[in-house]
Amino acid sequence: MGSSFNLIEIVIHSTPFGKVVLAILVIASILSIAMIIERILVLRKIKSNTEADQDEIDEAIRNKNIDTLSEYIDNSERKTNPLCTVLYEGIAQWKVLRATGETRIDFIEDKVNGAVFHEMRSIRTVMRANLSMLANIASTAPFIGLLGTVIGIIQTFQTIGKEGNMGTDLVAGGIAEALIATAMGLFAAIPALLAYNLFSTMIADYILELERKSTDRMVLIMQLLEQKYNKA
Asked: What distance lies between CA 106 and its chain's CA centroid?
């Protein structure tokens, strides 16, 4: 291998097993980066849509225009407009109960709130999509890298034993090749772990805020629905 310790040269001259390990870690790193970018874009869009939806919903509530409000919520995109999605389920539950002749206000409120909270759990699951993959990469990549390092060191000593040569180039080159696997494992794992923790915190905070926003507005929406129902 000579005295050069160029990274590319080391990878090119690495063992087949070492190349397989490095390929797996490179793929894991690429997947991790792709999922991080995807979650950033999705969560940013959700946050932006929630702010816009909140303004539209509050304006309709202030104007006591339940028809406009219902139409706006019905036409919203389910996956990227969680606030509208939650309120949609609450309104749908209210309509079902009223259609069956239910008149107990407390019972209706409990059922509507139950539908709202159930939908929020579904939204939390959707928002956490791909996070399990990030967690898997963060937890397994270092061990894959360590496996590559251990096997690389073993193969280096086997080569030394066969050749009876303890030359600096042979030893240093073999150890360098082995340690690259550990470095690649950490390179794949660290961003995945940081992103997983960051996204988990962001989503938990968002769900708490969504719960507050949706329950406050659902109370006002039910009042408007009851007014319309009583007038009918």
From this structure: 37
For 87, counting Cβ atoms within 10 Å of its Cβ (0-12 exposed, 13-18 middle, 19+ buried), the class is: buried
CA distances for 131 relative to 47, 125, 137, 180, 202, angstroms:
18, 10, 10, 27, 12
Would you list the domain boundaries of the chain? 17-231
Phi/psi for 198 (5° steps) reads -65, -50
Count of other CB atoms within 10 angstroms of residue 192: 27
Closest CA to 66 of 178, 230, 226, 174: 226
Closest CA to 68 of 230, 229, 224, 212: 224
How confident is the prediction along the chain (232 residues), in pLDDT tens digits per residue?
A: 444 456 666 666 677 777 888 899 999 999 999 999 999 999 999 999 999 999 999 999 999 999 899 999 988 887 789 999 999 999 999 999 988 888 888 899 999 999 999 999 999 988 998 899 999 999 999 999 998 888 888 877 777 767 665 556 656 666 777 788 888 999 999 999 999 999 999 999 999 999 999 999 999 999 998 888 877 6
Q: Is the pTM of this model over 0.85?
A: no
